[in-house]
Amino acid sequence: MSNVRLAEIQILEGSRKKGEPLGILFWICVGWIALNVFVAIFANVLPFQNPLNEDFTALNAAPSLHHLFGADDLGRDILARVAYGSRVSISVGIGAMIIGFGVGAPLGMLAAYRRGRFDAILTTVMYVMLAFPAIIATIAVLSFWTPRSLTKIIIVIGVASIPLVYRVIRTATLSVATKDYVVAAKVQGATDRRILMKELLPNIAPIGISFLLIGIATVVTLEGALAFLGLSVTPPTPSWGNMINEARTILQTNPWLVIFPSLALCLFLLCLNFIGDRIRTHFDVTEVKL
Amino acid sequence: MSDVREPLLKVRDLEVTFHAHGHSVSAVAGVSFDIFEGETLGLVGESGCGKSTTGKALMRIVEPSNGTIELDGTNVATLSGKVLRAARTKMQMIFQDPISSLNPRRRVKDIVAEPLDCWKKVQGDERTSIVHDLLSKVGIDPVVYGDRYARQFSGGQCQRISIARSLAMRPKLLICDEMVSALDVSVQAQILNLLEDLKAEYGLTLLFIAHDLAVVKNVSDRVAVMYLGKICEIGPADTLYESPAHPYTEFLLGAALEADPDSPMHSQTLEGEPPSPMNPPSGCRFRTRCPNATQKCADEEPLPQEVAPKHLVSCHYPLTIHHKTPTPTAVDG
Amino acid sequence: MSDEKLLVVKDLKTTFDTANGLLPAVGGVSFDLDRNETLGIVGESGSGKTVLSRTIMGLQPRTKVSVTGSAVIDGFEVVGASENDKRKIWGTEVAMVFQDPMTSLNPVMRIGKQIDEALRVRLGMDKAAAKARAIELLELVGIPSPQERYDAYPGMLSGGMRQRVVIAIALACSPKLLMADEPTTGLDVTIQAQILNLLDELKDRLKMSVILVTHDLGVVATRTSRIVVMYAGRIVETGNTRDVFYHHRMPYTKALLESSPKVSNHSHTRLVTIPGRPPNLLNLPDGCAFAPRCSYATDQCHLVRPELEPSSEPGHTFACWNPLPVNEEGALA
């Protein structure tokens, strides 16, 4: 067996690096998102003012020590409302994605792995659903399904996102499921369940997570749009979207009511998108061969 | 090799038909051969001949439409479910692309142990020692490289890991589907030598599928030549290459580019393109490109006939075989 | 007409600026090419042969790549030339045939139109003249029914046919030099033979020179008059084909020849392997790049890199401190 001894194995230099490094900007964005989530969860124990408290001495007040972000046309503290408003945006974002991924992802994976009639029927159904513009469908449903509540909004947006998640996860799984190592696993006697968990899932996870984050961002934007149309949570509950909506009419007198919720929304979305994209490039395992 | 022994693998009238867009393509159109224990059968042919599909059908990666595949007495072609999974431990396959044969996100030692884990036969220390043993046998130091991810290895190394994985359950039959085609010449040589060593050590039987004639001859005891879904000729490697009986085999060997400036340039090149498998010629499938074809070739499909011991050819007008022991072969018409 | 060499390459270096450092893919290559000559550039992956061929053609991007040295095609210096100037010689002086015909052809454009493009843009022909010439070219490369095939899409043709179309496009403006990078890899053996015969024929008819870049020694053995052997970005041996095959001096050449299985070998011939793997170009060792794997290496080989020195035959040079003895017998490896 002399060839065994003679085979000197050299690992490619530089292949220990995982791919592009995450970078400091990535962690800053993670920090910002974490801060938002923290504020959303602990808003009522943090030292914010009562967002519903109308302070008649500070109508449309500019930012000051008392009202760090200023006050709106009913004297309510904008900082507090932005903080409490984050609850709506974040819970819609996460809640809807839980529904979307919870249903869409397993179906997408299964359809891509099984193929055949199951895949054909399911994919046709999903693609038909995708043909309807999500926003219009959401608006239509929410207009009729009254009285509106946060739960209902989450459900509607969640269900609307199922076909999109299905398509992305199915495509990602298709490219993995045809690889030789999946065939090899089958040939070794692995059960389907084992193949899905051990071979497919780890390889779709990076794309899945990255799409999840971008999906949250999309959903949050959608909620903002719905609020703008008056179809989100009913006032006086604050949400970033309905704050911007309220601010439309008083833009000249009170720019702060537009600026701060918009800023909060933009930063939140930017960070999510950036994190999602970074994860995708970081876990990209295409090798560099010399 | 005594003829009285039962072959380890008996394939009879294997057919694989694909259906696409209303057409049916007969990729494998009735193939029969035996492989005896401890021997290597080479399967050569050009693209579209069905050799890879045959290998995949044996492994039930694609479904045979007809025929029997008897491995050690059991007809694998009709099994399903748990019984099929169990039967698969006796047969393993090595694929062409070494990189995509391994899950890039798993560690090498887990990949090699995967078959053991699927069947939960061994645990703990025994599992580790089996994995270490397999990796060392294929030339990969288990201590230094066992924890690395599969994506950190080169093509040749990946192929070694694939081999180690396939041996974990001690299969009887190993199907090599173009396993060295994607490797450099020097790496190819290492892998082929490794394969021969492991074959001896593990008592393997091999079906070696490839398009490179020199590589196939090097590893095989017997060679089968396929054209458009059928076997034209099957016989001992040395004699088949030296005196082919089927005109296609002769053309194939003539076209092979030998790394030798003084090798004779064969004047007759095979012209034209292979016919489409969707619409194969009647009778003998090679007749459209064969210089010796007659009306009989179009009317009647040639059946395998023995022209020398263990040397079968499917042709109405086989070429004369020159053997050391004079065995006159009459060329008809 | 001119006695001058068609291509003169002097100390050509191509270095890539990668995330992991500078990569000297081609580390100083010099050779020349006569008119009407076929040269083979042989090497395994990582040898730099493809990078060399693209550098000579002037196809390296401007960023992250540095090209130094000189490559003069019929008096035109490619290194440092502007895109506009290079465009003048592309197609008319030099043309390239790539490995995968499916990616070299635009899948959504009819093949006739793709040939027309070259004629109308470079030679200024009008529509009718271009079409007539295109059909002539299709016939020249051996495509049956060229008038009908003129309107075909690449997807309708087989691999061999597509490669013929690629050759037709390359020849449209009658270049003096044809650079063929792995033109037959991936094609069936019988189709390979057809394509190589075609290139031979065209080379004589059109008075062209051809450079065949390949890893396949069989391709160069009978089709080239001279060979260049590359390893780790440099030439390690060059000379007339017969001299390199039969009187090689550099151990890598010997090892490469010995590790290729041959059709003329007996079955189960043990292949001679080269231990280890090609070096990492980012981290080339001092001295000869092949020394870590060479069984003849001495201390000097690990410290100082050998330059090309002449052997006894004219035009035959090699780079080695401990060359193999001059082989008078002419035995192959």
Commentary on this structure:
- The complex is a heterotrimer of chains A (290), B (333) and C (333).
- Chain A is mainly α and 290 residues long.
- Chain A has helices at residues 2-6, 24-42, 78-114, 116-131, 134-144, 150-177, 180-187, 192-228, 240-247, 256-282.
- Chain A is elongated and about 75 Å long.
- The two termini of chain A are 29 Å apart.
- The model of chain A is unreliable at 1-17 and 286-290 (pLDDT under 50).
- Chain B has 333 residues and is an alpha/beta fold.
- In chain B, the strands form two sheets. In chain B, strands 6-7-8-3-9-10-12-11 form an eight-stranded mixed β-sheet, sandwiched between helices. In chain B, strands 2-1-4-5 form a four-stranded antiparallel β-sheet.
- The longest helix of chain B has 18 residues, at 185-202.
- Chain C has 333 residues and is an alpha/beta fold.
- Chain C has a domain at 230-262 and 269-318.
- Chain C contains twelve helices and twelve strands.
- Chain C starts with 6 loop residues before the first strand and ends in a 15-residue tail after the last strand.
- Chains B and C meet through α7, α8, α9 and α10 of B and α7, α8, α9, α10 and α11 of C.
